[in-house]
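Attaching the record inline, Q. Sequence:
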Amino acid sequence: MLKSFAVAAAVAGVLVAAPPASAATAESGWGRYLPGNCLPGTFCGWPNWDHPPEGPTATPSLVTTTDWSGSVTVFNFYNYTSRNVDIDWFLPGTSYAGTFCATPGDADLYVPMTVTKVVFHTRNCR
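Structure, as predicted:
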């Protein structure tokens, strides 16, 4: 039970730490790493820890330029688009789930989650 609370606290800390939308740009990324092998105009998610200085180089588990739904493990992501992206996720083995809004250049998560939907939009993230 204590382990579940520790995981939930880590997830909440990652999700709350996002800066305002105006601080992100697709060119530079405010996230913790550069886009790596995520091509401009795409949203990418990787299933494993792979963080050399230039950004992730492993094969992404999710690459999309349009709305997507399915079920895939994503440990970290990079939004290399000019649009905001809502990411629906849940933490396997728990009741923790939610939607994370990723602004252009946003890179985050660092907890293996199951992503079930990616929706592109132009409205501001909350």
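Confidence is low (pLDDT under 50) at residues 1-29. The CA atoms of residues 36 and 56 lie 5 Å apart.

More tomorrow.
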